[in-house]
Specification:
Blueprint lengths: L2 H22 L5 H4 L5 H20 L3 H5 L3 H29 L2 H7 L2 H13 L4 H33 L2 H36 L5 H29 L19 H29 L2 H7 L1 H15 L5 H20 L4
Helix pairs in contact: 1-11, 1-13, 3-5, 3-10, 3-11, 5-6, 5-9, 5-10, 6-8, 6-9, 6-13, 7-8, 7-9, 7-12, 8-9, 8-14, 9-11, 10-11
Length: 333
């Protein structure tokens, strides 16, 4: 590939990764917009929508889908299970337990974690060229975390004994978010390797294949959610209203939000990410997941009607600068 072609591929890959981040950021505000919905219901609802969207897309990709082997479909199934359902169940639970900021920032470590793990295996870039961007991104994550922890501490001091309860919720939320981090460290690395080894399969076809394999998994999750809500006794006692299965207390909002997320966050986001994974080294695409964090922060602050604190704003700036330095390190020389 010529230098001009490599540069064009770099810019196209960057644009696709940024678009995927903007699409994925929407999933961070859904649990806050639907606070009465259990994480399993949110996860099953989102991926049922993803699967139904994929069914409509499958007609246009039917010939290329027929070219996939049984091993390809099994791989798509594993990617769907871990990268979609399991990841989103734990992410939704973390957000509902600890709020948007803490899980968002822990998920925000993914650019560093994925870049390090992938570079350990493929050595796409010397560590001396990769380290500066990762250090700046990590500094940005720390700064935004400091701002959120400071806000939590101030809330706890004003609430007296409520501070201990708030910290325990943050701890549980952090543990749930860490499981999500593990899931989504595994997913992009495995997905990128498959895309790079199968250049004949389009990113759109592979996104549709993952959506199709997600659909039966989402149906199982939906039935499991039904069983839990129907058979399990209320953990909060009989005095608290149980979840009104299947569509809950805000049925119209739930259906509309799941449809939007299924189309934009799941199918379109996966399609854009597949394209970026084919064009860019995984060590770089890992760093570009920071745009999911930035989008989630922007959507979260907008939903709360707040502006980021100065320290958080500085951290956000460092995240952007770090990604810029990382992209420049991979520029053809």
């Amino acid at each position: 590939m010529t230098d001009t072609g490599a540069r064009q591929g770099l810019w196209l890959g960057l644009a696709c990764a940024i678009g995927a981040g903007l699409a994925w950021g929407l999933v961070f505000v859904a649990p806050v917009m639907l606070p009465g919905y259990p994480p399993l219901v949110l996860s099953a609802g989102r991926y049922l929508a993803f699967g139904l969207v994929a069914l409509t897309m499958a007609w246009h990709s039917r010939q290329s889908l027929q070219q996939l082997s049984s091993a390809d479909w099994i791989k798509a199934g594993w990617l769907s299970l871990i990268g979609n359902l399991v990841y989103y169940v734990f992410l939704s639970a973390a957000i509902q337990t600890a709020g948007v900021p803490m899980p968002t920032m822990l998920i925000g470590t993914l650019p560093v974690v994925i870049a390090v793990v992938s570079n350990l295996s493929d050595r796409a870039l010397p560590w001396r060229r990769l380290a500066p961007s990762l250090a700046i991104i990590l500094a940005g994550i720390v700064l935004v975390n400091q701002a959120e922890i400071a806000a939590l501490t101030g809330l706890g001091e004003s609430a007296g004994h409520g501070h201990e309860s708030a910290l325990s919720k943050q701890t549980l939320g952090a543990l749930l978010a860490l499981v999500a981090v593990v899931c989504w460290t595994w997913y992009p690395i495995k997905n990128a390797r498959w895309m790079q080894r199968n250049p004949g399969v389009s990113p759109s076809t592979w996104a549709t294949a993952q959506g199709l394999t997600t659909l039966p998994l989402a149906l199982v999750a939906w039935c499991l959610a039904l069983a839990v809500e129907t058979l399990a006794p209320s953990a909060a006692g009989a005095s608290q209203t149980r979840f009104d299965f299947p569509l809950g207390p805000q049925a119209v909002r739930f259906v509309l939000l799941m449809t939007v997320i299924g189309l934009i966050s799941s199918w379109l986001g996966t399609r854009l990410w597949n394209q970026a994974s084919r064009l860019l080294p995984t060590s770089l695409t890992g760093q570009l997941i920071v745009f999911e964090t930035l989008a989630a922060l922007a959507y979260g602050y907008a939903w709360r009607g707040e502006m980021p604190a100065p320290t958080a704003a500085l951290g956000i700036g460092l995240l952007i600068v770090g990604v810029g330095i990382g992209a420049n390190a991979f520029r053809p020389r």
